[in-house]
Amino acid sequence: MKFSIILWLLITPLLFSFSTTKSTAEKAPLPDPESFPIPNGIPGLLFYIQRDPNTNTICYELNMNKNGQLEGNDPVHAFWIRYPEGGMRKDLNYIQRKFAYGINVKAVGNEQYELRSVAYSKLPLILRKDAKNNYRVYTDINKKECVLSRVFIRIDGGTFWSPNVLYIELKGTETATGKIVSQRIKPS
After folding, report:
1. Which of 6, 34, 59, 91 is least buried, going by the fewest C-beta atoms within 10 A?
2. Contact criterion met (CB below 8 Å) for 117 and 100
3. How confident is the model at residue 124 (pLDDT cuts 50, 70, 90)?
4. Which residues on neighbouring strands pair with residue 106, listed in sequence order?
């Protein structure tokens, strides 16, 4: 009982300190996602996520062992690029991995893996090799098979544990035509 009270006293201020809700008069215009920096120079980059309220970016790269082979039990490694802090690279913490930006992986055979976001598991992603033998992440965008490159999450207020997500925008390259395709999903 005493531990529960102490834990509550420690966590409660943190929960309220992450609140991003502002009155209508205080709200600044939301930034254009196309103005965010694009990660580059990352070998094995599969896709990345950007979201409000800042340009910090979560990157998902192939997790290779020291022999240059894919780690079959854990094929994807996620990390931050903290652009406001000079582009510093930082691993996700436990809460971020388990509740926000982590990926659940299931081997489906033939060197393919089903990936599901811990925060939005409705969208299946498939990690598999392309015609050039390079791993890519595939998903349907506007009912077309695409190689996923970017996810943008538009957040307008809410709290750390319950952000107000207006939409999730997927962007990728259609496998049949090579055209860039995007789609906005309203989470339910």
Report:
1. 34
2. no
3. very high
4. 114
